[in-house]
Structures are given as C-alpha cells and as structure tokens.
Task: structure prediction
Amino acid sequence: MADNTIDRIAKATPPGLAKRVRGLSDRAIAWLFVGPSILLLLAINIFPLIWTIRLSFTNFRVNRFNAPIEFIGLRNYERILSDPDVWKTMQATAHFLFWTIFLQVLIGFALAYLINKKFKGNDLWTTIIVLPMMLSPAVVGNFWTFLYQPQIGLFNYVVGFFSGIDPSSFSMIGSIHLAPWAIVIVDTWMWTPFVMLICLAGLRSIPDSIYEAAEIDRASKWRQFWTLTVPMVLPFLMLAVLFRGIENFKMFDLVVQLTGGGPGSITTLTSIDLKREAFEKWRTGYASAYAVILFVTVFGMASIYVKSLNKVKDR
Amino acid sequence: MRISKFLISTAVIAMSFVGTTSAVAQDLTLCWASWDPANALVEMSKDFEAKSGNTMHFEFVPWPNFADRMLNELNSGGHLCDLMIGDSQWIGGAAENGQYVKLNDFFDANNISMDDFLPATVVGYAEWPKNTPNYWALPAFADVVGWTYRKDWFGRPELQKKFKAKYGYPLDAPANLEQLKDIAEFFQGREIDGKKVYGAAIYTERGSEGITMGVTNALYNYGFKYQNPKKPYDLEGYVNSPGAVKGLEYYKALYDAGTPPGSSDWYMSEDIDAYKSGQVAMQMNFAFIWPGVNVDPNVGGDRTGYFANPPGPAGQFAQLGGQGISVVANSPHKDAALEYIKWFAQPEIQARWTEMGGASAMRSVVEAPDFPSKKPYNKAFLKSMSIVKDFWAEPSYASLLLAMQARVHNYVIAGQGTAREALDGIVKDWTEIFEDEGKL
Result:
C-alpha cells in the first residue's frame, strides 16, 4: 500500500522538479528544512542580542535621533554595577525569587501529593486549584490590590478575624515591611498550581509496582516517601524550579499592578527598573548594558542549574 | 474619434475630481488620553468634519499608560497620530527632537495670537524654550491641582463646635496649608452618619507621576525652587532649601495623620473614588474632575465646595496640569491637522469647548464677566490658574520625574530617611542627569 502511494507520488512529480530533488543530498534536504527556522532564529533572537551588546557600549538614546552616538566603552557597565540603587533592586529580586520558589515548591508538592491520592471529587479539586494560573497577571494584580485594601479588603479582614488585629491598622502594599511579602503571596497563590501540575506528572510517572515491592520489603510509608517518591519526583521538581526561576527573574506585570515598585523602591524588581531605564528615561545604551548583565546572570545560573538537573536525571 | 475624445476628457475630469477630493478630505487621527473631556472633543469635532470634509479618528489611551504609549509613538517615528494633545512636560523633548511642528508661522498667517490665552498656559503648554516666543502647541486644556471639600460636613454645627474648641478657629475651607492639615487630622477616623471617614485623599502614586504632582503643591508653597533663577540648572540650595525640607516634611505629616489607610499608591482615579464614596472630607485632584463632582448624586451640588491650593509660608502656588494640541511632525496630513488647530482656536469653538466639559485656556472665555458665576467651581479654577507652577519640561523630564518619584515616595510613604536626605538625593540625581545632557 505504502509502496503504491510512493510510486503514485513519484509518477505525479513533474520531471523537472524530480530531477532537481534527486540531485540534492540528504544533508542539503536537511538544511532546506532547518534553514528557515535558523534564519528566523537569527533574525528575532541572535541579531537583537548582538545589537543590544553593541548598543551597551554607547550613549545611544532612542528618542534622540539627531544626537551623535558616542562609543563610551565600559562606562555603562561601571555605572550600573557601582549604583547602590541597582543593587537594591537585585536584592529585592533575590528576595522575591527565593521565597516564591521556596513556597511554591513546598505547597505545590504537598498539593500534588494530596491530589495524587484517589478520592471523590479529585478532578473537580484539581480544576479549582489550577484556576489562578489561568488568569491574566494584570487582572490578578488588580484584584489583589482590592483584597489588600485595609478598609474593604478580604485579606485584611481574614487576618483581622483570626488575629484580632484591626484590619485597617495595617496595609500590605503600603508598608515597607509587608510589601515584599505581599507580592510573594500573590505570586505564590497564582503559580503554585503550575508547580503542583509538574509534581503531579512526576508522581503519576512512578509505577505502582515499585511501591508494591517496597511494601513486600516492609518499608514504612515514611521510608517509601523519602527513598522512592522524593528521588523520583526530584527531576520534575527541579524542572519546575527552573521554569519558575526564569519566569520570576523577569517578573514585571503583576508587581507593577500591585505596588508600582513601591513603597519607595522596596518592590522595584530588576525588570521594572530596566523598563524604566529603557522606555521611560529612554537611556537605550545604559538599558542595553543593564539587559546584558541580567541576561548573563540568568543564562549563567540557568546553565549551572541545567547541568545539575542532568546529573540528577542520570542518577 | 469623438467618442474617444469624450472618454478621455471624462476620464480626466473624473481623475481630477478624485484627486481634488483626496487632497481636501483626509483622515486625521487625534491622540489624547482616555477621559471625559476626550469624549466631549469627539462630539465637538463633528463640527470640524462637517465644515472641512475631513474625517476625524481618535486614539485615546488611559492615563496610566498615556505617556508610555504616546512617547513611544513619537520616539519611534510612528504615523499613528496627526494631532497630539500631549502633556505639558513633553514639550521640550518634542521640540528639540523635531517631533512637533513649530507653529509660529502658522499662528502669524492665521491671526492666532498667544496673547489671547492665559499666560501660564502659553508658557506651560506651548513654549520651548520656556519664556521665549517659540510655539509648538496651542493651549488646549487648562488644568491645575486644586481641592474639593465636603461643604455639608463642614457646615454641621456639632462638628464646627468641636473643631473650634480644638483648633481655635472656625471650620471652613482652609486659609493655609497648616489649616488644611488640621482639618484633615480632625476628620481622620471620625464617625459621620455611622460611617468611619478620613481627612484627605492626596496624591501618593509611585509608578508614573502621582506623588510628584501632589508633593509639589506643598513644596512650592514652602520655598522649593527647581533651580537658581539667575543661574539655570544650579540646584543646590534651591531644591533642598530649608523651606523645601519643611514642605516635604509637611506632606509626610499630612499623609501620616490625615489620609485613609491603604492610600499609599493613589492618584486621580483613587482620589475621585474615595471622595465620591464619602470616605474623605477633602480631595486633592486636578480641576478636570470638578464638573463630574458637581453633578455626582452622592456628593454633588451644595454638598461640595472647591478651593485653590492654600498658601504656605513662601507663597501660594499650585501644580499645573493640562495640555496643548500639537501637529506631529511625522504626519502625512500636516495641512489638514493645522486646519483643525485653526478651527479649534476660534473663540466660539473655545466657548463651546468649556460648555461641553473641556477647559478652554482662552482669555475671552475664562475672563468673561459671567464666567466665575457660571459654575460653582469656576472661581477656584480661575484662582488656581493664576498661581500655577510646572515641573521641568526639559527633554530629559522623564528621568527627572522618575528620580523625584523614587526619592519622595521613599521618604513620604516608605518612611525611609529624612526629608533633607530625600531632597539631597534629588539634587544628586538631577545633577547627574543634567551632566549627562551636557547642561552642566
């Protein structure tokens, strides 16, 4: 049947075209297929990257077409790395990254472990839990500003109800002590389901026979959890950490909507700072250097992380 | 032969007709912020369409994204907008970067005189460099920061009695900034009609320009100056003068003692909401909201009074808002866009503009004898427009603004450092920016 089809296609191919295709090597045909993708990649990824690196050594401002562009060497890099305000945004980003990932992994894994047990309404609960990650970050940011409202917000009311504190006596997004936690809570609420889904995939990939063998060997539940479940889910968990880490390193919309980077600059993450430099102050050369520094940081950290992930998978 | 001649001449006539039509009737796009006055302009522009044959299109962007979106458009050399009603602070950059068309020759040719407009709006919206007769816009929408207050609450005898007993003077629209703070403190947390209310809704927003537009109303009146009047870009001792320090401390004290909890990131819309929902006794906001307040079912009519930003120890000033209308240099329809400005500059159109919810800056409109009595807020508006000061309109205004936003928010809202440190920080940041610009 297959032979007939191939024969029919061969007969239907115009002689000229058939001759040309017959003349191509396998390698040439492979390039023919891969070529457009590579060109596209070069155009939309590699070229802008090279261009950004080039601009990072200049004083170029995109809103000053008439101004001469001067090569200023490493001055932009020096200014960024010696600016205490930039380091503060790095600290804010590190705080946000660490706590969101820590909480999401902890809660996400716990939820996945529970959902993995067979119980009535399992599917319904899974759907309800994953709802937050289906919402737009801008919408989430907006409605959490209402939830955090000291006078009418549900969050303050609930805290007040359980602790006895006056709900209007504290402001989650107006206090320098609480605002960094306010953004961590919202991101955790939104993205824990994502980590849960990945962990769930990991848990469901573990064959029942392994647990049955452990049962026969009289391994306790606790021991099964630490010696079977955790090691076998770990590569999935590490993948989730990688995804969330990269995503949260460039977090912008949710935080801008919630706090605008305030109070003061306490929740100004690097991506917010970068956006202000590039598209509000229009310091294109400076912002390019800033972007290169962030790119190298993320790329370096992700590369190290991926290597360790591969080691865990190989074990 | 005759038939072919007839056909050719018909075709020529048809072509010339099409050509003439397309030269006269053009599609013009006007870019502005998305708010009530913009809707009034859409209505009014129907008259221009009928008279000129041009078709008007509108691109309105909500205020929080307005500057981002429109400056992107100008900086990227886009062709979306033929006419731009841009913020007053953009004028320096737009003029120096060739993004707006210079209008001097056009004004001269069409007998449009800047003397016909309120002087503050000409300086604020049209001129670059400031105080020189180089015009890049026609004053389009006069606006200024002012205050609304709950006249009905202020008039309650029991509250008047308590207030007089505590502060020693009658409860009324404040005569100075210190009194404004007293009143805000007085109402803070007070129960009125079974509901907890607060003193004042003020500008505290961090992300765009909010807290700067608010704090300057205190800074100016306590002695803050942008620069040495005799030596441009000389900041030390003017931006961080002892008076300026007191002004910044005043704004923080007002925020701490007299504003609703959670108002740490409020700007125009949050202040309106707080006032209209009966949460606050006073509201700082641009005057454009006053017509809406006046007709509001909850707080409108006699329940609200209006006053200009009260004086401080160094005088009485208020932050200028508002915009001018400019022709975008990249527009392929510059002639039609200029025609629109010519139409808009007519005194009868300006009068209609104010009637329909706009805010004309034309003197024949706002200095008309019956203007102050036409609306309950007109007196406060006129007073406010006579005391305006504006933020920098330099090409680097955005950098200057962001630096001030960060420093002021850090002190007033986050409570970090002192007022002196915040103002010293502004001097440092602004000096660096002007050095980068080659102005120092």
